[in-house]
Amino acid sequence: MHAIVYRSFGEPEVLELAQVPRPVPLRHEVLVRVRAAGVNPPDWKLRRNPYPPDYAELPLTPGWDVSGVVEETGEYVGRFKPGDEVFGMLNFPSYAGAYAEYVVARPRQFARKPAEIDHVQAAALPMAALTAWQAFEDIAEVSPGQRVLVHAAAGGVGHLAVQLAKLRGAYVIGTTRGAKHAFARGLGADELIDYTAVDFAEAVSDVDVVLDMVGGDYPARSLPVLRPGGAFIGGAGMTTSDMEAYARAGLRFGKFSVEPDHAALGAIAALAADGRLAAHVDRVFSLAEAAKAHALMESGDFTGKLVLEI
Length: 310
Prior knowledge:
alpha/beta
């Protein structure tokens, strides 16, 4: 089968299209013919720097998000049958090899793809939507009337987080470039801040929940915008000193990593099926164009998600 591989760590150019053996499902796994693979920040970050360093054995195939059709099932699989359309986030944070014509994984890492959306839209959902879902459902428990600040509100996680927070009845504030305000407002954001022109820490206050996938100095700058009892949820860049500062302030904080979640993925599928949640796909690339997709993602010059169509 065809797959994208890299034989050394580095720039997007290390990605190459290669012929590799088709995986064979174990008795408790399913083989899925991939129709589309989502591109996410961990894909390029781990292409540059393996994590954990002693775990990565080259060559590697990047990617975790897929949408496709079940080709074959192991003898102990009863959830799906050949021909079923499925989507999911596979094995994260272990390497999964989603940039390929076929993948294997345990059936609980998939959900049925909604018939109402195509494979490209479905492949854009798993990692980003699960991140926002787990942040608002399992950690912060966002409820009606709360004020939620979503950093990078037009990004992969951010644009889905805006939608999910609104579905939970929150007042949503987003940070994004001014050129993307109309897009974020169309998702339901109540208030938007151009972070290139305004310091959000001076423009926002009394926030119940902050969701930050930016990192850097955002955790420290977000602390004063939270009201007593508020919660900060970060996916990257929260240092020990940041956590100590939040603890001294009596604020809740969480540095978390998304994980496969069949039940949540099924709930996300139901929302996508009736149009209440939609991934915005900025660009679609072929499998052979994976390096171009990575270069664009690293540049940040896009809105929503990028997807490889296979």
